[in-house]
């Protein structure tokens, strides 16, 4: 049995999320079917993060155990051939130690959230960004983002379905950068709560629209109350960018 | 009658190109139908460039004459509402003089060609870039690009269906920039021949793959012979970026 670590890119639009579901396509099932087509083995592909429906992956990390004797490069090529037409691609494949775990060994996760700030609807980016028609003040959003950085109880920014034991997380990075009509919010932490990035981006957008002040974000955070969340951003603009080990 | 200048973005994937066709969808027809839905007027929407099937627009310029009394902002909003679900968006709309012509008044056109240089297939970018599996030497491509800049007879880089009177064009910019696995080729000229950008990019890619030398590009250019073209790049990666007036 050899453990392979995969770097995976995917377009989240057609999927119900990373995790295998009974009633619809998932990235995990697409990869597990590809592994079966290549090796004849029924296996589980474990990921660093289980992204929601409509969320994309640029550099998701995953691992899979395979009995068949196959070189990493050949496995990568074969998976890419067999996973089609699902919009999933294995960008890298290496052999790792048997105790390396894509989820439990992960020391840091990075997300990017893409906003297109304009009145006109999206064309080729539909489903790949959040179109916000109201003019957003990116400087105010950056100021509000700084309030959230650090170790906090993020109950306000956590889905009711979140299964984590503790709502406390340490947010290492939350940056806001505007380039023309595009705004990128980047977030990094050891781990995130369910919906945390989308919830934080939603509140930053309210600040950008001047419907919330920077202090409203602080009050919402300190309230530790999901009912105080201003807005949950849609999945469209969210990309899992990288995992650190 | 008022003449409006439009800035238009579109996803070229579902279209047979800019120009109205009898047997399939076009960007022009989508816009003309939207104008009809808004104004009840059957009009022609003229563009700065008639892009091919599968080619995209980021900042295409166009004009249309409308009899109905309507403010530019309202026209833009109404067109965006009516053009759906076609992936076309009007980003800007202004009133221009009656003799302003999107095509004939245009003094410069800018294109960008996007290459993703990796073995893995594309996911969310499928149809939005050219995936080239062989490692490309971007520095060699930039050197070859410099051979093409300037005033030349571009017969080698011109489609057999090109209707221009002269094959002579002055290429002002042809740059190659790599950012990780992404390579962007930018081209600017007063005007281009049919398939010129894709033909130039195809030959630059051959140089990047080391199948052609920089001198092979010079020889192909000087041959003024379409049969000497090495490779025509696919439409997927081509974006009409901007027009200058």
Automatic annotation (TrEMBL), chains A, B:
GO terms for molecular function: RNA binding; tRNA pseudouridine(38-40) synthase activity. Keywords: Isomerase, tRNA processing. It catalyses: uridine(38/39/40) in tRNA = pseudouridine(38/39/40) in tRNA. It holds the Pfam family PseudoU_synth_1. The active site is at residue 52. Residues 8-104, 144-245 form the Pseudouridine synthase I TruA alpha/beta domain. The keyword Protease does not apply. Transmembrane segments: none annotated. GO terms for biological process: tRNA pseudouridine synthesis. It is an enzyme of class 5 (isomerase). Its EC number is 5.4.99.12. Belongs to the tRNA pseudouridine synthase TruA family. Homodimer. PANTHER family: PSEUDOURIDYLATE SYNTHASE, TRNA PSEUDOURIDINE SYNTHASE-LIKE 1. HAMAP family: TruA. Formation of pseudouridine at positions 38, 39 and 40 in the anticodon stem and loop of transfer RNAs. This is tRNA pseudouridine synthase A. It comes from Sphingomonas liriopis. The lineage of its organism: Bacteria, Pseudomonadati, Pseudomonadota, Alphaproteobacteria, Sphingomonadales. The gene is truA.
């Amino acid at each position: 049995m050899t453990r392979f670590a995969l770097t995976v890119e995917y377009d989240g639009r057609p999927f119900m999320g990373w995790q295998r579901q009974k009633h619809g396509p998932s990235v995990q099932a697409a990869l597990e079917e590809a592994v079966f087509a290549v090796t004849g083995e029924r296996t589980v592909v474990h990921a660093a993060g289980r992204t929601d429906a409509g969320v994309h992956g640029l550099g998701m990390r995953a691992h899979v155990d395979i009995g068949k004797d196959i070189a990493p490069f050949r496995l990568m090529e074969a998976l890419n051939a067999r996973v089609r037409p699902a919009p999933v691609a294995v960008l890298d494949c290496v052999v790792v130690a048997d105790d390396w775990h894509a989820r439990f060994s992960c020391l840091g996760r990075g997300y990017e959230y893409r906003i297109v700030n304009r009145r006109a609807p999206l064309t080729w980016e539909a489903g790949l960004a959040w179109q916000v028609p109201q003019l957003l003040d990116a400087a105010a959003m950056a100021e509000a983002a700084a309030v959230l950085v650090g170790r906090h109880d993020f109950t306000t920014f956590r889905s009711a379905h979140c299964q984590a034991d503790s709502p406390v997380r340490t947010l290492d990075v939350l940056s806001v950068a505007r380039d023309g009509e595009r705004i990128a919010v980047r977030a990094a932490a050891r781990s995130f709560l369910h919906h945390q990035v989308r919830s934080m981006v939603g509140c930053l957008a309210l600040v950008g629209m001047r419907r919330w002040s920077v202090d409203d974000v602080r009050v919402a955070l300190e309230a530790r109350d999901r009912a105080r969340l201003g807005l949950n951003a849609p999945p469209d603009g969210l990309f899992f960018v990288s995992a650190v080990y």
